[in-house]
Design goal:
- The protein is α/β, with parallel strands linked by helices.
- The chain has one domain: Alpha-Beta Complex (Spore Coat Polysaccharide Biosynthesis Protein SpsA, Chain A).
- A seven-stranded mixed sheet has the order 3-2-1-4-6-5-7, sandwiched between helices.
- α1 packs across α2.
- The chain contains six helices and seven strands, in the order βααββαβαββαβα.
Length: 203
């Protein structure tokens, strides 16, 4: 097992099940189209990372698709339960398989770049936990060197105080952590339009 493991949480692109907040503005068909674009962006992003000493695993939300854009990646099905339990068990699987540093991301951020992921793994050489804050008060990335179950228990998932409560727990348990630059996840149609503008203006 490589020392670095990247977990990618995805949903199957099914109408009515993805980007439901965005769909309120543009409809479910367009929302699926946007989500497929996000999946492709995330795949290209993770493909661009150096493959030495890195194990990539996709965790599906509904069912494992054996023939999609994630061909060549390890595939698992997320466990049942809330987001915290699903992330916790994914971390547990990768750490028990022998990874020394594990980072999880979703598939909702057009601002995420390879440098953010590389920085996350570098931070874990000297810190217990790394967090990528999202501008809505949550986080787009979480990494750790061993399983800290309290970070997944009784947390306000999808609420604006998630990051704050996560940091409070880290401080409460005396864990060393670092924060990456804040980025914006795409939840609303305006988030998508603004992210596309930033993407087009990159050097």
């Amino acid at each position: 097992m490589p020392r670095n493991a990247l977990i990618i949480f995805v949903k199957n692109p099914i109408e009515g099940k993805v980007k439901t907040r965005l769909a309120k503005t543009v409809g479910h068909t367009k929302a699926v189209e946007v989500y497929r674009e996000l999946l492709e962006y995330t795949r290209n992003l993770t493909d661009s990372l150096p493959s030495e000493d890195l194990h990539r695993t996709v965790y599906y939300g509904d069912f494992v698709n054996e023939n999609d854009l994630w061909n060549g990646y390890a595939r698992y099905l997320q466990t049942e339960g809330d987001l915290g339990l699903r992330m916790q068990e994914a971390f547990r699987e990768q750490l028990e398989a022998g990874a020394e540093r594990v980072v999880i991301i979703g598939s909702d951020c057009l601002d995420l770049r390879p440098t953010h992921l590389q920085q996350a793994f570098e931070v874990l050489h000297e810190s217990d936990v790394v967090l990528g804050p999202s501008t809505d008060g949550g986080y787009y990335l979480l990494g750790m060197t061993r399983l800290h179950e309290m970070l997944f228990e009784e947390m306000p998932w999808s609420q604006p105080e998630l990051l704050e409560k996560t940091i409070f727990k880290l401080q409460q348990h005396g864990l060393k952590y670092q924060l990456l630059p804040p980025l914006t996840d795409i939840d609303e149609w305006d988030d998508y339009l603004q992210a596309k503008e930033r993407l087009l203006s990159r050097p």
